[in-house]
Amino acid sequence: MLEKWESLTARVEETQMATALHRELTALRTEFKAAHDRLFSYEIALEQPHILDERINRITAELAALRDRKAAMLALNVQTHRLITDVGNSSSLIFTALKDGVADLYRVWDETFQKGNQQLCALQAVQQFSVRLAELQCALRRDKDTLAVLDVALQAGATSEVASSVRHVARLLSEKQDMNCQNGGTVLKDSTTEEVSGGVSAKFGDSPPISLTQEGGSLSDSGISDSGSEQELSERERRLAALRRLTRSLESQLAPGSEALVELLKRVEDAETELRDLQKQCRELIVRTAASVEARAAKRTSNQVHHFVDKRKKPVATEMSKEGAELVVTPVQAKSGATDGGDPDNEPGLPHSWVWRILRAALPFQLALVALFCAACLLEPHCCEATNTLNFSLTTQLRYVRGPPPV
């Protein structure tokens, strides 16, 4: 009777311990289920940065709490295993349910933790997508403003500045950094040196030419080829390719046709459309700049040719007028019998410049002044000194200051 009582007491205690473990298992399982539901409730959408940060912080806190509860789950598993080992009768229904509850608890924890990681990765990808999309849109707005300023400058006639600036914008907007000129493409070359020095040729830079293909080329394709190396893409194309990679990574995490995925694809398509429009504007600006440079070079060449022809025409006209004068003077000289060898106009080697013309006009006036001075000196009265033989002597002479003394 005593043995039966002791056996019954032991079974009651084991049952109480199993019941307590079962209640603890149920509580943990309920807690993990609630965490799973909370993690699943976080929507993956393109929101404001502060909203995405808040959701990421909440999911991170949920995952940290799950890691902390893993220790309690491990302790419960140890207690269950010890209880079953001490009893030695694992075929009982209560112990079988206890073992199944522990296994189910581990499964729920794994699913919850995996779901939390997926949600966290998806939100981080969306956050990164939002940041990169904002950077690309900001860069495209800067490019648009730059093209507008360059357009105004080109209309104002600042061809050299526009040529050097549009080349930089073309490098940012072109599909590839170094790309050969395709059929129908517009190629920019260096114009800085030739444009400043006044040369005829027009070029736009020192590095290899950059080509923006026409609308029928590869720039009009809706997608970006993955076969080419990303290093060959320009800066704007690399940003767009990064957005496409993030979108493809989210396609595996989001349900097909979900609102978030549709919104992301629409944002990428809008950014690509804006980029293609800017590429078209840049291509048109390049064509206009090249035409303006060619027009200015042609005008400069025409001015140089006209200036050279005018300089050639002036000596020819002078020679023709001189020959006509010689033809007119020659009969007169032949009739009068006078020789005109001292005339400088008949000498072919003398220069016909404005200095020579001034000197030729001033020489008669100078000669006239000298003649007047000589005449004044010769007509000066000398009175009694005309009979003085010592007048031109170099010796000392005695003269009366106020005339001769009275006799």
TrEMBL record:
<dbReference type="GO" id="GO:0031965">
    <property type="term" value="C:nuclear membrane"/>
</dbReference>
<feature type="topological domain" description="Perinuclear space">
    <location>
        <begin position="382"/>
        <end position="407"/>
    </location>
</feature>
<feature type="region of interest" description="Disordered">
    <location>
        <begin position="183"/>
        <end position="235"/>
    </location>
</feature>
<feature type="domain" description="KASH">
    <location>
        <begin position="352"/>
        <end position="407"/>
    </location>
</feature>
<keyword id="KW-0812">Transmembrane</keyword>
<dbReference type="GO" id="GO:0007010">
    <property type="term" value="P:cytoskeleton organization"/>
</dbReference>
<dbReference type="GO" id="GO:0006997">
    <property type="term" value="P:nucleus organization"/>
</dbReference>
<comment type="similarity">
    <text>Belongs to the nesprin family.</text>
</comment>
<keyword id="KW-0539">Nucleus</keyword>
<dbReference type="GO" id="GO:0048471">
    <property type="term" value="C:perinuclear region of cytoplasm"/>
</dbReference>
<dbReference type="GO" id="GO:0007097">
    <property type="term" value="P:nuclear migration"/>
</dbReference>
<protein>
    <recommendedName>
        <fullName>KASH domain-containing protein</fullName>
    </recommendedName>
</protein>
<dbReference type="InterPro" id="IPR012315">
    <property type="entry name" value="KASH"/>
</dbReference>
<dbReference type="GO" id="GO:0019894">
    <property type="term" value="F:kinesin binding"/>
</dbReference>
<keyword id="KW-1133">Transmembrane helix</keyword>
<keyword id="KW-0472">Membrane</keyword>
<feature type="topological domain" description="Cytoplasmic">
    <location>
        <begin position="1"/>
        <end position="360"/>
    </location>
</feature>
<dbReference type="Pfam" id="PF10541">
    <property type="entry name" value="KASH"/>
</dbReference>
<feature type="compositionally biased region" description="Low complexity">
    <location>
        <begin position="216"/>
        <end position="231"/>
    </location>
</feature>
